[in-house]
Amino acid sequence: MSIEELKQELLGKTYPEKIVFGKHATVVDINKFLNTQFTSCANWTKEIDKCPSYLRLISFHEIIKSQ
User: Which among 5, 25, 9, 1 is positioned nearest to 64, based on CA atoms?
Assistant: First the structure.
Protein backbone atom coordinates (compact mmCIF):
# COMPACT_ATOMS: atom_id res chain seq x y z
CA MET A 1 0.00 0.00 0.00
CA SER A 2 1.39 3.40 -0.97
CA ILE A 3 1.59 6.49 1.24
CA GLU A 4 -1.12 8.15 -0.86
CA GLU A 5 -3.42 5.14 -0.41
CA LEU A 6 -2.79 5.24 3.34
CA LYS A 7 -3.61 8.96 3.43
CA GLN A 8 -6.90 8.31 1.62
CA GLU A 9 -7.75 5.48 4.00
CA LEU A 10 -6.72 7.12 7.27
CA LEU A 11 -7.00 10.90 7.08
CA GLY A 12 -10.23 12.80 7.65
CA LYS A 13 -11.96 10.00 9.55
CA THR A 14 -13.35 9.91 13.05
CA TYR A 15 -11.63 7.54 15.44
CA PRO A 16 -12.25 6.41 19.01
CA GLU A 17 -10.66 8.45 21.80
CA LYS A 18 -7.80 5.97 22.02
CA ILE A 19 -6.62 2.94 20.11
CA VAL A 20 -4.59 0.13 21.64
CA PHE A 21 -1.64 -0.46 19.34
CA GLY A 22 -0.65 -3.95 20.36
CA LYS A 23 0.53 -4.72 23.88
CA HIS A 24 3.23 -2.06 23.76
CA ALA A 25 1.37 1.20 23.02
CA THR A 26 -1.89 3.11 23.17
CA VAL A 27 -2.49 5.99 20.77
CA VAL A 28 -4.49 8.74 22.50
CA ASP A 29 -4.09 11.59 20.00
CA ILE A 30 -4.86 9.93 16.67
CA ASN A 31 -4.50 13.06 14.52
CA LYS A 32 -1.10 13.90 16.00
CA PHE A 33 0.02 10.28 15.59
CA LEU A 34 -1.00 10.21 11.92
CA ASN A 35 0.55 13.61 11.19
CA THR A 36 3.83 12.58 12.81
CA GLN A 37 3.99 9.27 10.94
CA PHE A 38 3.17 10.83 7.54
CA THR A 39 5.74 13.61 8.11
CA SER A 40 8.38 11.06 8.99
CA CYS A 41 7.56 9.06 5.85
CA ALA A 42 7.84 12.19 3.71
CA ASN A 43 11.33 12.82 5.09
CA TRP A 44 12.49 9.21 4.67
CA THR A 45 15.09 8.91 1.91
CA LYS A 46 15.46 5.13 1.69
CA GLU A 47 13.01 2.44 0.58
CA ILE A 48 9.64 3.32 2.10
CA ASP A 49 8.88 -0.25 3.18
CA LYS A 50 11.86 0.00 5.56
CA CYS A 51 10.62 3.18 7.23
CA PRO A 52 9.49 2.56 10.84
CA SER A 53 6.73 5.17 10.50
CA TYR A 54 5.42 3.50 7.35
CA LEU A 55 5.31 0.17 9.18
CA ARG A 56 3.40 1.82 12.06
CA LEU A 57 0.89 3.27 9.56
CA ILE A 58 0.38 -0.14 7.99
CA SER A 59 -0.16 -1.68 11.44
CA PHE A 60 -2.55 1.14 12.40
CA HIS A 61 -4.50 0.60 9.18
CA GLU A 62 -4.81 -3.13 9.89
CA ILE A 63 -6.02 -2.43 13.45
CA ILE A 64 -8.63 0.05 12.18
CA LYS A 65 -9.84 -2.38 9.50
CA SER A 66 -10.29 -5.15 12.06
CA GLN A 67 -12.48 -3.06 14.38
Answer: 9
In the beta sheet, which residues pair with residue 20?
26
Dihedral pair phi/psi, residue 66, rounded to 5°: -80, -10
pLDDT in tens, 7-51: 999 999 999 999 998 788 899 999 999 999 999 999 999 999 999
Up-side HSE of residue 50: CA atoms within 13 Å toward CB? 4
Q: What's the residue count for the chain?
A: 67
Cα–Cα distance between 64 and 9 in angstroms, integer? Answer: 10
Instruction: Tell me the chain's radius of gyration from C-alpha atoms.
Output: 11
